[in-house]
Structure formats: structure tokens, C-alpha cells
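Aim 2, interim progress. The first record below pairs a target sequence with its C-alpha cells.
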Amino acid sequence: MFGSLKKLARNLRVPTVQEREMAYLNDSIDRYDFEYRQRQVDQGLFRKPL
């Protein structure tokens, strides 16, 4: 029973800012895209309030 509750809680967890930034950077296609995305992250793209 507790195993299913843990699994449910894990699936409902919201990713952290660092996890979202890393996922965004990992989706880059090439070096230039990565550098562009890195500049966006450095400028605070994910740090702004929703």
C-alpha cells in the first residue's frame, strides 16, 4: 500500500528550477543552440515568477 502511495507522490512532484533548466539545456540540438539556451538560462529565463 505504501509503495503505491510513494509512486503517486513521486509522479505528482513538481520539478525544481534546476531540473527544468537542465532538461531545457539537454534538449539542445547542437553547440550553437546549447550556447543560446545557456545565455537564456543565465539571464533568468526559469527564475522569473509564473
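The second target in this work package is listed in the same format:
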Amino acid sequence: MSQVQKSIDVDVPVSTAYNQWTQFETFPQFMGGVESITQVDDTHLHWVTDIAGVEREFDAEITEQHPDERVAWRSIGGDTQHAGVVTFHRLAESSTRVMVQIDWQPSGIVEKVGSAVNVDDRQVERDLERFKELIEERGHESGAWRGDVQTP
């Protein structure tokens, strides 16, 4: 199992950063390799990715979500195995630390080599930098879902 842990400080209030992160269908705007995400219901997402020429479709389930604090998920079904959590930490009135932890199981030679040379770390770091640019340029979220999902 591979693990990536990255964080970035964004110059927006914690609620703005959190609210934007709940807009899963906008992830392709800042996540490299994510072609589309369809939100099926409050806790289920369908992902389509193309990373380094490896195309995948898989479903994910939100396992825990608390406004302005955290969003956790895991893949369900299919051959893609990953889980993660994003946490939001108030640094000041208009500054937030966004922390990402992803655990995933590389499959195939391309993913195993990529993980071994930390391509996944650099990808998450670039994605967070693009998230920072997106939310700071906009200055406000494009939407929000303030529901609470308890750990099963």
C-alpha cells in the first residue's frame, strides 16, 4: 500500500475551502488525470480518470464528512483500491491549511514504478497548488454541501 500526505495553506476562510472541496464534480478543474466525477447521491461518487495513460472508472463512498473539518472516502468495488481523508484547519480568520492523506494500492507496472519514484506525491502536491489558485482567484466557493456523514 502506498501513502501520500500533503498540505497547503490557502488564503480563504476554512468554510470557503471546505465548501469548495465538497463540490466533487469540479475536481477536474484542479486535479490532474481526473476526467470527470459524477455525484450519484450525498455519499456516492463515480470517477473517471486517465493517469499516465491508465484509464480507470470506479465508485467511491464518502465514509465521513463534517462541515469545516473533514471529508473521508474509500473506493468501492472494481479494481481500484484507495481511501483518503482531507482535513481543514483554521489558521486565521482568512487562512486555512488543507491536509490530504491518501492510501492506495498501485496495480500494474506503470503505477508501481510511479509510486516507487514518488510521482503520486508530486501529483497530489500539484493538485493542491491548483486548488489554492482556483479558490484564491475566485475568492468564494462555487457551491456547498453542509451535510454531516457519520462514520459507519
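The mean pLDDT is 90. This observation will shape the mutagenesis plan for the next reporting period.
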